[in-house]
Amino acid sequence: MTLIKSISGIRGTIGGATNDNLTPIDAVKFAAAYGTWLKEYSGKEKLNVVIGRDARLSGEMIQNLVVSTLVGLGIDVVDLGLSTTPTVEVAVPLEKADGGIILTASHNPKQWNALKLLNEKGEFLNAVEGAKILELAENESFDFAQVDDLGTITKNDSYIDIHIDEVLNLPLVDKEVTRKGGFKVVVDGVNSTGGIAIPKLLEELGVEVIKLYCDPTGHFPHNPEPLKEHLGDICDLVVKEKADFGIVVDPDVDRLAFISNEGEMFGEEYTLVACADYVLGKTKGDTVSNLSSSRALRDVTQKHGCNYEAAAVGEVNVVTKMKANNAIIGGEGNGGIIYPESHYGRDALVGTALFLMLMSERGGTVAELRASYPSYFMSKKKIQLTPELDVDGLLETMHKKYAHEDVSTIDGVKIDFAENWVHLRKSNTEPIIRIYTEAKSQIEADDLADRIISEIKEIAGLS
């Protein structure tokens, strides 16, 4: 069992001993730390926080604990109940709230849950803010409200519909256009809140929806991470139903993957590529993804005569770079679409609408669309190192070895070669170096990863 405390929140497995798992005591302690920080950060006497959760089995229990803790601190709560991560992000500014908490472990299996923390803009906290909350939780420096000053709870289950309306009102989304497409789409909602939100949105866009695992029971029918090896059922159903494509989301609906009309993965990396292709065809501007995302976004961005830049891995880093560059679209290669015209957060509802607009206007099949983009293949491996080894020193040596190439050191070491790239990152919690590569064939990507691994092992004296 595991409890992971990080600047972006706290996540862990349900059950077991305190401080080693996400027990009720740990949930209360971390919620109290967030509420205490929010009171200090805002300087306000009365605060309002939005809370929502995915459908996982422990969600209601964790939500009751978190909501009651905030009320005990004198903070008013807007309880969205079953929701999605982007829906909570949208709700925070609409409610003029001081912050928000999303109760979800994202793509992790059912035994996991987590508290994801937002600021008053509905955006994830930065490293300094997250570190302060960890410090407060460690010291248990809490001052709860007197009985006359307790917070209140307001339930509002309308925000998924409000979120859908916000998507439909985007300038580049036109439901009259998508309705003419006559699309038939299979949706895998992994029995979480995507099974509520995505079909509702598609029906508003005039799409015939075939639901697969869209009952929000929290009993995930397969590993909830939207990867090829977990998605055999929807791939088969798309072909059987002669659907135009399939849509897969993770439990909190911030990651989006498509299945082609041929029952093949469109590729999570290409979700952002396709959405950016549509947006850049309408509005020129910069794009941003993280260093471990596909080069295909750069290629498509340049095709439209625009500029691409990479950020350090992590949604908050991508958002920071997007704001600095005034980027019009960005995200991460895991199927996360960030479209500032809506909000600065990964949003599968926004991505779905943009993709439908692209397909409506371009015509053809999803398989043909995928074939029209530059084809890249990735390899993701890691090296287990002994604790006494200097990982930073190893990465610096690799940097010097390839200093004649195009090298970035904003997040580990990324080496851009003419035809491929490799990204080396160290784990913050264990002596591991992660090696991501991309090339124009799977064999080439794997060979590049194996070569770099051999070089690192030789330097470390492990070969």
From TrEMBL:
EC number(s) recorded for this UniProt protein: 5.4.2.10
What are the protein's GO molecular function terms?
A: phosphoglucosamine mutase activity
Report which superkingdom the organism of origin falls in.
Bacteria
UniProt-listed InterPro entries: A-D-PHexomutase_a/b/a-I, A-D-PHexomutase_a/b/a-I/II/III, A-D-PHexomutase_a/b/a-II, A-D-PHexomutase_a/b/a-III, A-D-PHexomutase_C, A-D-PHexomutase_C_sf, A-D-PHexomutase_CS, Alpha-D-phosphohexomutase_SF
Which segments constitute the Alpha-D-phosphohexomutase C-terminal domain? 404-453
Name of a matching Pfam family: PGM_PMM_I
Q: Which UniProt keywords apply?
A: Isomerase, Magnesium, Metal-binding, Phosphoprotein
Q: Does the keyword Lipoprotein apply?
A: no
What does UniProt give as the signal peptide span? none
Q: What is the enzyme's main class?
A: isomerase
Q: Which SUPFAM superfamilies match?
A: Phosphoglucomutase, C-terminal domain, Phosphoglucomutase, first 3 domains
Q: Which cofactor does it need?
A: Mg(2+)
Sequence ranges assigned to domain Alpha-D-phosphohexomutase alpha/beta/alpha in this UniProt record: 8-142, 164-263, 270-374
According to its UniProt record, which protein family does this protein belong to?
Belongs to the phosphohexose mutase family.
Query: What name does this protein carry?
Result: Phosphoglucosamine mutase
Could you read off the lineage of the organism from its UniProt record?
Answer: Bacteria, Pseudomonadati, Bacteroidota, Flavobacteriia, Flavobacteriales
